[in-house]
Amino acid sequence: MSDFTTPATYPDDLLEGVVTLLELIRSGHAGTRQELAHLSGLGRTAVTNRVNELMDRGLVAESGLGPSIGGRQPRQLRFRAEAGIVLVADIGATSISVGSADLSGRLLVNYEEPWKVTLGGGATLERVEQLFDQMLTSPAVQGLALWGIGIGVPGPVEFATGRPISPPIMPGWDAYPVRQQISQRFQSPVWVDNDANVMALGELRAGAGMGESDMVFIKIGTGIGSGLVSGGHLHRGAQGSAGDIGHVAISSDPTTVCRCGKIGCLEALAGGAAIARDGIDAARAGRSAFLAKVLAAEGEIDAADVGEGAQSGDAASVEILSTAGYRIGQALATVVSFFNPGVLVIGGGVARAGDGLLAAIRHGVYERSLPLATRDLRILRSTLSGQGGMIGAAFMVLDQLFRHESMATWLPDGSPAGHVELPDLSTSRHRA
Ligand SMILES: [Zn+2]
To answer: From 3.90.1570.10, 3.90.1150.10, 1.10.10.10, 1.20.1530.20, which CATH number describes the 12-79 domain?
Structure first.
């Protein structure tokens, strides 16, 4: 038995030990009491007491026998990822994806539908709430405690308040209290971030960037954004807008007006909307039989059509994608010089358009970067396909829930369910 029972608050040294041991078990670094004692420096009795505390709280369970290092086999311990769930939503420009994940970040259920983010914050969040309600009644998660909610949106977010700030492609969302509304509705702690940031976190923890320390994730969708990982942590910057590469100027041509109102932005020249626009131009100018056929049949052309054209050998489509990719690569060369990442991960719907785009990005990066910065640089495609935003949003929530300050608040209750105040504690720093 533990030598203390349900304290209202933990003494600091006790909390410190409980947090340390849980982190060692959760990360897989320690699986037995012996390993915990060895890695934490705590004595055998202290470890036993703290493990009992974690087991009483339902956070850790015994799962059979571990390897023996002489003497009898030690009991194996594991983190109970099934102790609760997190709900996630990845709101894109043209779709909503929602899901629920266990406490190891594994998606249990997910669902996607077309949606226009331009319908505004009120209508969009109402739909997200309906979908969350459906998630909570699905057999896979029914009855499990809701530990937290993570939401990614396609625009700049002030991370401390969970509000989008002047998002260029989200009219009607400026300063919309996303966190407050969802938090009140579900009585749960909620974190909101830019979609490229959550996707970067997803790649870092479960995708192409696993185990990387310094990574840049580039999302090429309707718009372009990036998420920066430095020293294994997401780097959000002072306000949360770090990595907003879509609106760096790469041209002074006054005819390319961006949706942000400025001219010559990377996104206005190489994002999905720009690729679609160039496709329509090519179709109308008689430069592409393939795209003209799509335009006649569908009445519009999107970036995926141009990707298909490129794959089927349509010269105009190949040209559009390689121009866009080269421009993205040149802008990324600046990032590479500034930031010296070990890996660039390219994701987002348009990145799935074909190999031509990725090859052109590589060309642009290598041509413009210094040899030292690109000597060991790897440029990889996302491995999480359309689920990166949801998986990343789950890890955003888990990272925040298991921070020291957060755990000090919820651990006496055994669960963060209902602790709507947690995001206010945990956003004093902007590193995940
Ligand atoms: Zn712009």
So the answer is: 1.10.10.10
Helix (H) or strand (E) holding 194: strand 190-194
Measured in Å, residue 40 CA sits from the centre of ligand 1 at 49
Q: How confident is the model at residue 68 (pLDDT cuts 50, 70, 90)?
A: low
Q: How far apart are CA 86 and CA 108, in angstroms?
A: 10
Q: How many whole angstroms from 67 Cα to the centroid of ligand 1? A: 57
Structure tokens that stand for 220 in this block: 């090429």
Alpha carbon of 261 to ligand 1 centroid (Å)? 6
The whole-angstrom separation of Cα 338 and Cα 299 is 43
User: Degrees (nearest 5) of the Cα angle 127, 130, 136?
Assistant: 140
Residue 429 CB contacts under 8 Å (≥ 6 apart), including other chains: none
Residue 44 confidence class, pLDDT cut points 50, 70, 90: very high
Closest Cα to residue 55, out of 75, 35, 73?
75
CATH 3.30.420.40 in the chain, residues?
A: 84-201+388-426, 210-383
Domain spanning 84-201+388-426, CATH class: alpha beta
Instruction: Output the pLDDT for position 353.
Output: 76
Residues 241-272: pLDDT tens digits? 888 899 999 888 888 899 888 999 999 999 99
Tokens of 415: 């669960």
- Cα(307) to centroid(ligand 1), Å: 23
Report how far ligand 1's centroid is from the alpha carbon of 229 (Å).
23
Q: DSSP class of residue 74?
A: P
Residue 94 structure tokens: 């043209």
The neighbouring-strand residues paired with 293 are none
Q: Cα–Cα–Cα angle for 172, 174, 175, nearest 5°?
A: 130
Q: What is the pLDDT of residues 195-222, one digit of tens each?
A: 999 999 999 999 999 999 999 999 998 8
Which of 369 and 134 is assigned the larger pLDDT? 134
Class level of CATH domain 210-383: alpha beta
Instruction: Give 387 Cα–ligand 1 centroid separation in angstroms.
Output: 26
Q: Is the pLDDT of residue 106 over 50?
A: yes
- For the cut 70, the answer to whether the pLDDT of residue 321 exceeds it is yes
What distance in angstroms lies between residue 194's CA and the mean position of ligand 1's atoms? 16
Ligand 1 centroid to 342 CA: how many Å? Answer: 27
Nearest Cα to 281, choosing from 253, 317, 325, 322?
317
- Helix-helix angle 289-298:315-339, to 10 degrees: 100
CA 249 to centroid of ligand 1, rounded, Å: 8
